[in-house]
Amino acid sequence: MVFHSITSVSDKIYFIHIGTKEDIYFTWKSKNSPKAFIFDYSIAANAPQSEIYYHLNKGDIKIVYLKRDKLVFVIAGDISVQFQVFEALLEFHAVKFVEIYGDMLQDIFDVGTPDFFKAFHDVINEAIIEIPNQNGKIVEARCRSCQRVVYPYIRKSLIEESEDFPVPIVYMHEGHALLLYIDRDFKVRGAEIVSITG
Ligand SMILES: [Zn+2]
After folding, report:
1. Residue 72 and residue 74: Cα distance in Å, rounded?
2. 53 C-alpha vs ligand 1 centroid, how far in Å?
3. Which of 74, 82, 167, 179 could make an SS bond with 153 (beta carbons 3.0 to 4.6 A apart)?
4. Consecutive sets of 10 residues in the chain, 198 residues long: mean pLDDT of each?
5. How far is CA 70 from the centre of its chain?
6. Is residue 160 classed as helix, strand or coil in its secondary structure?
7. Structural domain containing residue 99
8. How far is the CA of 60 from the centre of ligand 1 (A)?
9. Residue 56: which CATH number?
């Protein structure tokens, strides 16, 4: 089966923060990031649970954050980028950061200068180009509500690490929601209109 590839989002990713509950260790920022926008890091630092991708909308900006062990990962970008793309990127960076710096992070006193994590800028610059395509797929479904063909992006791990199939996912668009069921081959097995609250 043929999958669509995602159009580049690299110029739509605005910033990435990596830190702990107390401090931001590292910030990567795009030149496209809106100058006036400041994210309140404590929102992510105080996330109630680990291993949950939290989603936020702030004006034209989407933010996704994740707590894992003692670390906090935040990514933000343009509202047009699907949440699953941010999740794929955040997941990649969380794994990569621990892979590169994990041993050193045991000793917090080594982590003093802003230059310490400098090399991670290159990791991010490469990842925002490659990871969305590498670690996710675009599926295709018809929405009976708006009569359009929609193209939700699904991060691969969501399907590959699932224990039950098909995997349900809600695709929000144009003010309504489509509940999709994705099988292990990334095929859409069902699509229902669902109501939204919250
Ligand atoms: Zn629709």
Report:
1. 7
2. 24
3. 82
4. 81 96 92 90 97 96 96 97 98 96 72 78 97 96 95 97 98 96 97 96
5. 19
6. helix
7. 10-134
8. 21
9. 3.30.450.50
